[in-house]
Write a structure and sequence with these properties.
InterPro entries: NAD(P)-bd_dom_sf, SDR_fam. GO terms for molecular function: oxidoreductase activity. Belongs to the short-chain dehydrogenases/reductases (SDR) family. This is Short-chain dehydrogenase/reductase SDR. It is globular and about 50 Å long. The longest helix has 29 residues. It has a seven-stranded parallel β-sheet, with helices on both faces. It contains eight helices and seven strands; from the N terminus they run βαβαβαβαβαβαααβ. The chain has one domain: Rossmann fold, CATH 3.40.50. With about 260 residues, the chain is α/β, with parallel strands linked by helices.
């Protein structure tokens, strides 16, 4: 347990399931208060926040957020200010899938820059920038903090139909490095966690999910798919004092799938 994290506050986007939910719980286990966002399932989000409070004795609140509308980040953080007295950690996790990515998920010749591809950019890079800017203003007031963006090894190796997502994950990693340099003077560290294929609803939405799953298990040195908890532990570490001299880095958590 990271005792020095107790009483601090995490803001995390998209935390009602998958990687976001596992991460919120991992931080709560370490005494961190949690401000989490959801897209549409208010009941699930509020029930999860209540569960975190009752189980771990921390403060947790849920807020609606559409990551495709970056103008929502300012009022989001203002609402968080009403409920929490500080912001120490920001995790840009929420991602889109389904109808919003039509035109961005598919073969190269089928990509549509003004449709799904633009949405993927906004949900990946735009949301990271807008959220990190608001978080950094608050971290500066408490002497520093840590920001983590989720990435994917799909920007390092070829995954069928993943060009739209993979290239935008590469872009957000580059943006994180720039942010790390410029926010360092405020004692704010910025890193990325790049996951191999993780067993989540987003992955199950892939048309070739079963094929991806089988190939991941085949390539993994550990002979299994990744889990949301695998990434949550890496995110927690990067926000902890144990990672106090790590910034501008992408931590690859892929079960060895990218070197076989």
């Amino acid at each position: 347990m990271y005792e020095t994290m107790k009483g601090k506050t995490l803001v995390i986007t998209g935390a009602t399931k998958g990687i976001g939910k596992a991460t919120a719980e991992k931080f709560a286990q370490n005494g961190v208060n949690v401000a989490l966002t959801y897209n549409s399932n208010k009941e699930a989000a509020e029930n999860f926040a209540k569960e975190l409070e009752e189980t771990y004795g921390i403060k947790a609140r849920a807020y609606a957020l559409d990551i495709l509308d970056t103008d929502q980040f300012k009022p989001l953080f203002e609402a968080i200010d009403e409920d929490f007295d500080r912001v120490d950690f920001f995790v840009s996790n929420a991602m889109i899938y389904g109808r919003p990515v039509v035109g961005g998920y598919g073969k190269f010749m089928k990509l549509r820059p003004k449709k799904g591809l633009a949405n993927i950019y906004m949900a990946t890079v735009g949301a990271f920038v807008a959220g990190s800017q608001e978080a950094a203003k608050r971290m500066q007031k408490v002497g520093g903090g840590a920001i983590v963006t989720l990435s994917s090894t799909g920007n390092r190796i070829y995954i069928e139909n993943y060009a739209g997502h993979g290239t935008n994950k590469a872009a957000v990693e580059a943006m994180a490095r720039y942010a790390a340099v410029e926010l360092g003077e405020w004692n704010i560290r910025v890193n990325a966690v790049s996951g191999g294929p993780i067993e989540t609803d987003a992955l199950r939405a892939f048309t070739n999910y079963e094929e991806v799953k089988a190939e991941t298990i085949k390539r993994s040195a550990l002979n299994r798919m990744g889990t949301p908890e695998d990434l949550a532990g890496a995110i927690l570490f990067l926000c902890s004092d144990d990672a106090s001299w790590i910034t501008g880095h992408t931590l690859v958590v892929d079960g060895g799938t990218t070197f076989r």
